[in-house]
Structure formats: structure tokens, C-alpha cells
Write a structure and sequence with these properties.
heterodimer; A: 110 residues; mainly beta; Immunoglobulin-like; 7-stranded mixed β-sheet; 4-stranded antiparallel β-sheet; 11 strands; 0% helix; globular; B: 123 residues
Chain lengths: 110, 123
């Protein structure tokens, strides 16, 4: 059973930079998993931020960026703002029409 | 503009059946995969499965295979998620999402989202 791992929680100061990561319980995340990232605030549907590792979805501010760092996918928020306080989910594409979500990271901006 | 509009909240008893819907507009419905994501109260998102309405090609997450049925009616641009016998553990918000699954561009992600359907199963 593939498990996609994320930090359960993270905090960042307003204006600061934070990097959230997305790994695998066994193995390394590479671009071949086509990692994507989603933001969800309480009571709202998810919002697509990043796809194919580092492509920003339409309308997503440039302060959100995606990459591969070591053996994990990463979402970096540069110049965090108060309304970036949300849950962030990564998703990996496993092939054959199967996707798997990570457990999500609750980001606090304080 | 692409829109995915889901059916309204449901309250059901254990053992009852249910079908919720997701209507797509603003694009050619049969040209894109559409799938379902579950969110149990207070928990994370879980990918359930997808359907390609143009060919009724369906893939389920192993975690949901046999527990739900995904279908679509391309004549009315609507995808469905169905249960034959609900359990209390099915209580969740269910989101539909238009997927991109493009072996040519190598893009695989969830591009647009519905607003979610709350399903509550309680005796």
C-alpha cells in the first residue's frame, strides 16, 4: 500500500518563506509521479495550485512554487500572507489512472 | 467557463442506497476524465476513482473498489457516485473534480472542482 507522506503541521511568520514536502513511505518522489498541490480552507472545496511538479494553475500567485527537493516533492510559499493559512495536499500520480493524496499539512501563519 | 455543479446535501439511514451527481458545463463533457474525492469530517482528502464519459472507462482506487459505483450520462453531462447500501462510515463530503490525464502532455492532475456534496448517514 503506497503511503504519501506530508508534515501534519507547519507554521510560518507573515512575509516568511515555508517549504512543505511530499514523500513516499517507500522510495523517492520524482517528476515521474507528476506531483500536484492543492489548497483547502475550512468549508471550501480544494483549489488547484501546482501541477506537473512546478506548473502554476491559472490565477495562482507567483509566491507559490513547486519543485523536487532531494527525494520529495516540495511546495514553497515565498512571502507568506495571512490568507495562506490553509490545509495543503499533495497528490502523486501512480500511473494507470490512479492518484494518491498525501495526508495534508495544516499551515498556520502567525 | 468550466463549472462543476454537484447535487445537494443528503441525509440517509444505514442500508439505504444513494446516488449523487456532478453536472459539467462550459466544456465538452466527453473529452475529460471526471472523478470523485472523499473528505471524512476532520480528515484529509481521499481519491476514489474516475470515469471517462466518452467511453465509460472507469478506474477505482483499490480502497474504494467494490464499495461505490461511478457512472456517467453523457447525454446530460453528468457524472454520478452511487452506493447500494450506505454505512455510517460513508458520512463525508464528496467532491467531483475534472481530471487532466494526458499521456501526450504528461499532465495528470485535478483541474476544476465541484462545490462538494455532504452525505450524512445516521440511524
Amino acid at each position: 500500500q503506497t503511503v504519501v507522506t506530508q508534515e501534519p503541521s507547519f507554521s510560518v511568520s507573515p512575509g516568511g518563506t515555508v517549504t512543505l514536502t511530499c514523500g513516499l513511505s517507500s522510495g523517492s518522489v520524482s517528476t515521474a509521479y507528476h506531483p500536484s498541490w492543492y489548497q483547502q480552507t475550512p468549508g471550501q472545496a480544494p483549489r488547484t495550485l501546482i501541477y506537473s511538479t512546478n506548473s502554476r494553475s491559472s490565477g495562482v500567485p507567483a509566491r507559490f512554487s513547486g519543485s523536487i527537493l532531494g527525494n520529495k516533492a516540495a511546495l514553497t510559499i515565498t512571502g507568506a500572507q495571512a490568507d495562506d493559512e490553509s490545509d495543503y495536499y499533495c497528490v502523486l500520480y501512480m500511473g494507470s489512472g490512479i492518484w494518491v493524496f498525501g495526508g495534508g499539512t495544516k499551515l498556520t501563519v502567525l | 467557463e468550466v463549472h462543476l455543479v454537484q447535487s445537494g446535501a443528503e441525509v440517509k439511514k444505514p442500508g439505504e442506497s444513494l446516488r449523487i451527481s456532478c453536472k459539467g458545463s462550459g466544456y465538452t463533457f466527453t473529452n475529460y476524465w471526471i472523478g470523485w474525492v472523499r473528505q471524512v469530517p476532520g480528515k484529509g482528502l481521499e481519491w476514489m476513482g474516475i470515469i471517462y464519459p466518452g467511453q465509460s472507462d472507469i478506474t477505482y482506487s483499490p480502497s474504494f473498489q467494490g464499495l461505490v459505483t461511478i457512472s456517467a450520462d453523457k447525454s446530460i453531462n453528468t457524472a454520478y457516485l452511487q452506493w447500494s447500501s450506505l454505512k455510517a462510515s460513508d458520512t463525508a463530503i464528496y467532491y467531483c473534480a475534472r481530471h487532466v490525464r494526458d499521456d501526450f502532455s504528461l499532465n495528470y492532475y485535478f483541474q476544476y472542482w465541484g462545490q462538494g456534496t455532504q452525505v450524512t448517514v445516521s440511524s
